[in-house]
Amino acid sequence: MQLILIVQVSIALLAGELSGLLTDSAAYGAWCLAAAPALVLVQGALLGYLAQRGMDRGSRRGVERCYASSGFVGWQVAVLLGCAATSGLPAAFGQALGGFAVTAVFLIAIVASVVAAYATLWPVERRVRESSYMRGLDGQLPLHPVPSRGAYVVAQARAGLVPMLAPLLVPAATSELAHALAARIAPEHGDAARLAGGVAGAICLFLLVPLIVPALLGLRRLEPGPIRADLESLAHEAGVAVREIWVWPTDGLLANAAVMGVLPGLRCVMLSDCLLECMPREQVRAVMAHELGHVARRHLPWLLVVVLACWTAATVLVTPIVQAVAESVAVRAGSADMQALAQIAMLGRDAAVLAVGLMVFGYASRRFERQADTFAVQLLSSKEGRADATMGAVDAMVGALGSVALLNHVPPDRSSWRHGSIAWRQGYLRGIRGMDHSRLPIDRLVSALCWTSAVIAAGGIAMGFLAL
Questions:
Q1: Is 461 left (phi over 0), alpha (psi -120 to 50) or beta?
Q2: Which of 45, 64, 137, 151 has the fewest CB atoms inside 10 Å of its own CB, making it the most exposed?
Q3: Radius of gyration of the chain (CA)
């Protein structure tokens, strides 16, 4: 879902540049844009109906198909957005309302599609939650009332959209604002102002996330007690400064956790209510240790380096190939089609760079997740005074991953672009049981990946300065 949303938002941000590439018809683009949420609504309602019919017969196949359909439907929405972006619609909106309004219209279609997906999933989710009440009673777990359709949609959309859209849209908004100001004051510096605005927005976002997110998600402070003391002890043992531990209220809908903040004085850890209420204490400690691993191994700054290296390497590799193909086609096409050919070549290059960059970034992100899992085992084993990966530490992290999959209704073998499948991560952890946890191959692999990315990124920056 994360990858699909990134692609959809990328199309929205580039819509102004793609306008008219395939057709000049604004009406065609408007139909494509309106069809995106309508398609999600119709397909979601059909899959939900079939899932409930299957549940009436005691079958879970329809439910699993309903949950797994989000990726397929999301790519359909991305195709419709692409068709709308390459029509005359962005140019028509840009002339009437301004450049940023084009992005806003596409973002409204994306949000409407996400809302439609959750709205049609709600009846299935309600029945799944109702069927799990007896298991909760047997396990003496807290039971949350089934939320209304509106409350469920708002909670899911807020949890899914805010963490993904903010890092993409805040830098874009500050970039456009800086460009608009420069256009009035010093038009000759418009491009430099756009770049500076984007960089400033990204920096402010990363610094202020711990102050913004609690208000947006309605977080509350984890009350003092044995669990908080245990988690704070883990943070101290890991050498990670944590300013606050937040509880993320989801009415039992989500089992998730995250660490926020680059600066030690602002850094926070967020644990959902479902995770704290439904998982055994040793698994909660494993989840906390995993999040601390992201900080201890400096994954956030290294991810930024990896992103820059991905785009640099992809551009260097893809551009000569696209140029060679374009020149070969130009010989046959003739000079009359050169302008259209140049536009198509640039679009193909950008799409190829995006695809290669996302593929490499996904590989790096999955290894970072594996290293964070490993750090959790290392930390928990060290707390036992052992130099090897103990059975208890491995079982706690394996069990935590399994509980997250169960509570979020995610099949363990379902692949994830950024995190990998639960089964893949569990299989790796079982393989390191009994090994010396100070000399594990994953740490050497990630170190080599990070420093290679740093060299590539530095080369890309140097090439950019030389080209000025």
A1: alpha
A2: 137
A3: 24
Segment 167-216, tens digit of pLDDT: 777 777 787 788 778 778 877 777 777 778 877 877 777 777 788 888 87
Q: Are 375 and 297 in contact (CB under 8 A)?
A: yes
The answer to whether the beta carbons of residues 18 and 103 sit under 8 Å apart is no
Distance CA 26, CA 38 (A): 19
Show the tokens assigned to 68: 């797994």
Place of tokens 């419709």: 80
How far is 73 from 384, CA to CA, in rounded Å? 47
Is the pTM higher than 0.85? The answer reads no
- Per-residue CA distances from 274 to 277, 283, 367, 425, 454 (Å): 5, 13, 26, 22, 38
**pLDDT of 467:** 59
The amino acid present at 24, given as its one-letter code, is D
In b/e form, how buried is each residue of 176-201, taking b as 16+ CB within 10 angstroms? bbbbbebeeeeeeebeebbebbbeeb
Q: Which residues does residue 84 pair with via DSSP β-bridges, in sequence order?
A: none
**pLDDT at residue 38, rounded to an integer:** 93
Beta strands in 164-278 (DSSP E): 220-221, 244-248, 257-260, 268-272
Nearest one of 196, 219, 378, 364 to 286, comparing CA atoms = 378
pLDDT class of 42 with cuts at 50, 70, 90:
very high
Where does residue 448 rank: exposed (0-12), middle (13-18), buried (19+ CB within 10 A)? exposed
Q: Whole-number mean pLDDT of the chain? A: 83
* Selection from 459, 457, 121 nearest residue 306 by Cα: 457
The alpha carbon dihedral of 288, 289, 294, 295 has a sign of positive
Domain segments of the chain as ranges: 1-146, 300-467
Region of 59 please: left (phi>0), alpha (psi -120 to 50) or beta.
Answer: beta
Given pLDDT bands bounded at 50, 70 and 90, which one contains residue 43?
very high
CA distances from 405 to 138, 411, 421, 436 (A): 20, 6, 10, 28
- Number of other residues whose CB lies within 10 A of the CB of residue 224: 9
Written as one letter, the residue type at 246 is: W
CA 318 to chain centroid, in Å, comes to 25
Residue 315 belongs to what H/E stretch?
Answer: helix 299-333
Q: Which of 55-69, 76-90, 398-412 has the lowest mean pLDDT?
A: 55-69
Question: Phi and psi dihedrals of 366, rounded to 5?
Answer: -65, -35
225: helix, strand or coil: coil
Collapsing DSSP to helix, strand or coil, 220 comes out as strand
Residue that is written with structure tokens 């999301």 in the block:
74
Sign of CA dihedral 93, 96, 97, 100: positive
Residue 366 above 90 pLDDT?
Answer: yes
